[in-house]
Write a structure and sequence with these properties.
- The complex is a heterodimer of chains A (312) and B (311).
- Chain A is of the alpha/beta class.
- Helices cover 36% and strands 24% of the residues of chain A.
- Chain A has helices at residues 52-59, 83-92, 110-121, 127-140, 157-169, 187-204, 215-221, 239-244, 249-256, 263-268, 301-311; strands at 7-18, 26-37, 41-45, 67-72, 75-76, 93-96, 175-179, 207-212, 224-229, 232-238, 287-292, 295-299.
- In chain A, strand 11 (287-292) and strand 12 (295-299) form a beta hairpin.
- Chain A starts with 6 loop residues before the first strand and ends with a helix.
- Chain B has one domain (39-309): MetI-like fold (Orthogonal Bundle), CATH 1.10.3720.
- Chain B is mainly alpha-helical.
- Chain B has helices at residues 2-6, 14-19, 27-37, 39-57, 100-135, 137-152, 155-165, 170-197, 200-207, 212-248, 260-269, 278-304.
- In chain B, helix 3 (27-37) crosses helix 12 (278-304), helix 5 crosses helix 11 (260-269) and helix 11 (260-269) packs across helix 12.
- The chains are: A alpha/beta (312), B mainly alpha (311).
- The A-B interface holds A 57, 60-62, 86-87, 90, 94-95, 97-99, 102-108, 112, 116-117, 119-121, 142-144, 147, 150-151, 153-156, 159, 164, 167, 171 and B 14-15, 18-19, 21-23, 25, 27, 199-201, 203-211, 214, 218-219, 222-223, 307.
Chain lengths: 312, 311
């Protein structure tokens, strides 16, 4: 039995709604719960519009929480919180955005972009110290300190994404939410950014939540994966376990769609379609059940029984 | 052996690779460079500068007349009415014998002064209200209602009322145009703010805990420089046009303060008499030059201030 690991981030029955006019609100995230342990890379996978970004944004407090709780080191961080906690959370939880072309302020120099968080938390004693912190952050992501005096549009996509990483790193965070950090990058530089993230994780013992829809990347970088569909988690397990024994029909369908870099195999591949109406939830409501240790799946009693049989 | 001599492993410096594609970019430097390439705009800018300098020094030049002095004939002691442009009166005289040359430049001073004051006020208040309206969600509802009320009162009525209540003067004019002139500007700024307020870089700033004030000044307003400058450039001739309009409906400045508004109004009354048309043409030409120059310049600057046009 492994020793109990520290829970860094916990999401309990999270609900995120978007109000559009007078109609009833659109529920983007519904009753989602999971834990993220210190030092791991947690993956959140789902198709476009499934609510994965909404969860990430609720965790950095951009999206309002309509219900449930978000806990950081056991303290609630959603809703009204004390000034000290707000400051701590602002510093310790950082986000890396999807599109490096859109996530940097075009009218500010790299120096300001990277130091923006420092200005907000006043985490430096002197101007010289602030400059040194910016230089260090730039060096840490493989950029040169003299880039600080340039504007974002002078950089390539990969370099811009690394500026985004530097902006998060300079805050000395403990937890980083990476919202599809490589999906809008050129394929040739994806590995560059992924390797950078892995290196930084080892050096600084960071915890990541990695939001993605590219399953091969998720398999490469994450330790545990949660699959989300229409605002609900359907399955959560260790990455290898999930890829080896996908239980929920949605997960199976998702995994079956992963391209195989071999034309012969790719041709013979069978794609399993997912039919959301295939569940018979009229009488027996689905529950979030731990089928085997650390492998959770959403299903009603009959389905769970079937899943257990398949694993046996 | 030979192959080893032929093929040498190329040296690769990672830091050097990062350095590639360096450009020494500065926003304002590029803006000015792009603006300078537009010769029409540079010409208009030059024209406006010359005009501004000229109207400032004109009263101190030799042989200038007082704009309000009524000139009398030496022989008959009658007013030199409607003297056509010539060596004595360069732009002729008006219907009571005042020198049109002096009146036009004095009027240009008044009208440009009103225009710049009104435009600055409207744009300043418009930016402040517009950014708060667009960015601060708590204020959105309140300001929208205030806007609905203000926007539904025709500005002509407000201008007319104020011009009636206060004594006609330059400050009355500025107040009448400034009371509601900022409303459309603030709405325009609000729309622009809403377009960019939820872009990812603003979300990133919010994640980093940047206070709203700094998001507005560092993230939002720099993106709006080009549209604000265009708005400002067009607001100056706009205010001059309003002044002409107020004068036309009889609420303008008193006649002893010449302005392009009352000059055009006087000229308009003589429009149907061909020999006296010069009294309309001269002030109209000045108004047109100012309007066209600001328009051309404003457009060129707005294009130049957009970094997408910085090659």
């Amino acid at each position: 039995m492994p020793i109990e690991r520290e829970v860094l981030m916990e999401v309990k029955n999270l609900r995120v709604e978007f109000k559009g006019g007078s109609k009833k609100p659109f529920v983007a995230v519904d009753d989602v719960s999971f834990k993220i342990y210190r030092g791991e890379t947690f993956g959140l996978v789902g198709e476009s519009g499934s609510g994965k970004t909404s969860i990430g944004r609720a965790m950095v407090r951009i999206n309002e929480v309509a219900g449930g709780e978000i806990l950081f080191k056991g303290q609630r961080i959603n809703g009204l919180i004390s000034r000290e906690l707000d400051r701590e959370v602002t510093q310790k939880i950082q986000m890396i955005f999807q599109d490096p072309m859109a996530s940097l302020n075009e009218r500010a120099k790299v120096d300001y972009i990277v130091a923006e968080g420092l200005y907000n938390t006043k985490a430096y004693q002197s101007e010289a110290e602030r400059k040194a912190m910016v230089s260090q952050a730039l060096l840490a992501v493989g950029l040169l300190p003299e880039f600080a005096s340039r504007f974002p549009h002078e950089f390539s996509g990969g370099q811009r994404q690394r500026i985004g990483v530097a902006r998060a790193l300079v805050m000395q965070p403990e937890f980083i939410i990476a919202d599809e950090p490589i999906s809008s990058l050129d394929v040739s530089i994806r590995a560059q950014v992924l390797n950078l993230l892995s290196e930084l994780q080892q050096q600084r013992s960071l915890t990541y939540m990695f939001i993605a829809h590219d399953l091969s990347v998720v398999r490469f970088i994450t330790d545990r994966v949660a699959v989300i569909n229409r605002g609900q988690l359907v399955e959560l397990a260790d990455t290898e376990e999930l890829f080896a024994n996908p239980l929920h029909p949605y997960t199976r369908s998702l995994l079956s769609a992963v391209p195989i870099p071999d034309p012969a195999l790719e041709q013979a591949k069978v794609i399993i379609p997912y039919d959301p109406l295939g569940h018979d939830y009229a009488v027996h409501k689905p529950l979030w059940v731990e089928v085997t240790p650390k492998h959770f799946v959403l299903g009603n009693a009959a389905e769970i029984k079937e899943y257990r049989q398949r694993l046996a | 052996m030979e192959e080893q001599a032929l093929f040498v492993l190329a040296e690769r410096d990672v830091a050097d690779a990062e350095r590639s594609g360096y450009s020494d970019y500065s926003y304002w430097g590029s803006t000015i460079r792009v603006f300078m390439k537009n010769y029409a705009a540079v010409f208009c800018l030059g024209l406006l500068i010359v005009l501004l300098v000229f109207i400032m020094v004109q009263p101190y030049l030799p042989a200038q007349r007082d704009p309000n002095e009524i000139h009398l004939s030496q022989e008959t002691f009658r007013q030199l009415r409607n003297v056509r442009p010539g060596a004595e009166f360069w732009f002729g005289t008006n219907s009571i014998g005042q020198d049109l040359w002096a009146r036009i430049w004095s009027g240009t001073r008044t009208s440009l002064g009103i225009g710049i004051a009104v435009a600055s006020w409207n744009v300043l208040i418009g930016i402040i209200v517009g950014t708060l309206w667009g960015y601060v969600r708590k204020l959105e509802r309140v300001l929208t209602e205030v806007y609905n009320v203000l926007d539904n009162i025709p500005s002509t009525i407000i201008m007319t009322l104020i011009a009636y209540m206060l004594r006609p003067s330059i400050s009355t004019m500025v107040i009448a145009m400034g009371v509601t002139g900022w409303v459309p500007v603030s709405r325009f700024i609000r729309t622009q703010v809403i377009i960019i307020r939820d872009r990812e870089y603003n979300l990133a700033s919010r994640c980093l805990g940047t206070p709203t004030g700094r998001i507005i000044t560092r993230n939002i307003l720099p993106y709006l420089v080009s549209v604000i400058m265009l708005r400002f450039a067009l607001a100056i001739p706009g205010a001059i046009a309003s002044e002409v309009f107020l004068t036309y409906i009889g609420l303008g400045l008193p006649l002893h303060i010449p302005s392009l508004g009352n000059l055009i109004n006087e000229g308009r009354q003589l429009m149907m008499i061909p020999v006296m048309r010069y009294q309309l043409i001269f002030p109209s030409v000045v108004v047109s030059l100012i309007t066209i120059s600001f328009y051309v310049m404003g457009n060129a600057f707005s294009d130049a201030a957009d970094p997408r046009n910085h090659v």
